[in-house]
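User: Predict the complex with glutamic acid.
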Amino acid sequence: MKTRFAPSPTGWMHFGNLRTALFNFLYAQRQKYGFLLRIEDTDRERSTLEFQNGILEDLKWLNLNWTEGPYLQSQRTAIYAKYYAQLEDAGLAYPCFCSEETLAVTRKIQQAAGKPPRYSGTCRNLTPEQIAKKIAAGEQATLRFKVPQDTIIEFVDLIKGPQRFAANDIGDFIIRRADGSASFMFCNAIDDAEMQVSHALRGDDHLTNTPRQIMILNALNLPHPEYGHFAMINGSDGAPLSKRNGSEAVRDLRAQGYLPLAVLNYLARLGHYYSDNDFLSLQGLAERFDLAHISTSPARHDLTHLRHWQKEALMLCSIEEIVEFIKPSIAGVIVESKYAEFATMIRDNILMPEDAMLWVSAVASEGLDFSDAAWQVLDQAGKDFFTIARDCVSKNPNIEFKELADQVKNATNCSGKQLFMPLRVALTGQLHGPELAKMLQFMGGAMAVKRFDWAILKLTTGM
Ligand code: GLU
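Assistant: Here is the predicted structure with glutamic acid placed in the model:
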């Protein structure tokens, strides 16, 4: 038994196809099935090796390891040829010489008459002589599957339940393009059978392909997998998720610093319900994965949820991992021997690697910029407050924060927020952040004096 992921390498992997990979992976893990990877690269114009490698790289980054493959459809032409011949010999497929233009006109007429567009059957009954003549004249032909009339195709969808389609509603469809390449409909079905895929989970944009694929496989006496179709992902505006409304390429998420398990915890819950909100390992996600928990209506992409899982993922990181995470933002400014101390200090105050830059600048930059709100805090405290603080540190550069706060409190009568907020803003430039005791210790007395002098200077000259 096995599931599969069958991406087309015609673009970078996004939330949508990643979730398809994840659901198939989790289901396979849960059921102890294999997980096959197949690259559907028959669209020669749009498929590239770069996209193909990108997909493999993304899957590896996320630890969605396949147990079989990757198989490339571009290398399986001979297999498809065998089945085309079988269908043609049995009279179940025929060459179609209709031009794109003719087909487009027919479709328009059908649509105008309120009918669903279907192939009108022009080439269905050509005689062998007529076919031979057209071929001899150099006419290009696609190959169409002859849909058996007056039959009903029924199957039980693993997610949506019983499905029923009337063959008469489905026109004869193309299984081989004019350039000789296999159509998606055909090679996707053939490969599932040939590769003994037993379960295929995919987006419900493929639901209407399924009766066609079952017909092909039935005609060839091949088994078809059990299919499960889940609802698509919508963007924050309710429209199908696309680059325009929030879908991001997996490689971009990686570049931004999202952690693999954050992305996976987010996506596993997008359209699949987990009874609790615990952050789970890949194994945990798999153990509780249940087809009955997949929703049949579209899920909505929500960046705040992804950020929530990023926070959870960060909380579980070791200090060494946090150091790696923020390295690009701290290298060259923080001395290497203090990486771990710095990481420990700021770990609860960052979500993305670049967030560390704020705290690098708090402890290391010459001057600080203040927001309006921060400026108000300084202004309310007044110059004298900072002169007192500066003098305390000048006299005792190794002073601990508690001692400093006590001395300033005694000299100014400020306490609580009135005491701590101005100290925080002057020392770090921020209204919130890591523990001040740690920040002071990290930056040291000389820098703290510089910070208070800066606040005094700013208050003297005005912002
Ligand atoms: N190559 C197809 C796609 O990317 C696969 C569809 C399927 O899962 O069957 O949409």
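The pocket of glutamic acid is lined by residues 6-8, 40, 188, 200, 202, 206 (CB under 6 Å).
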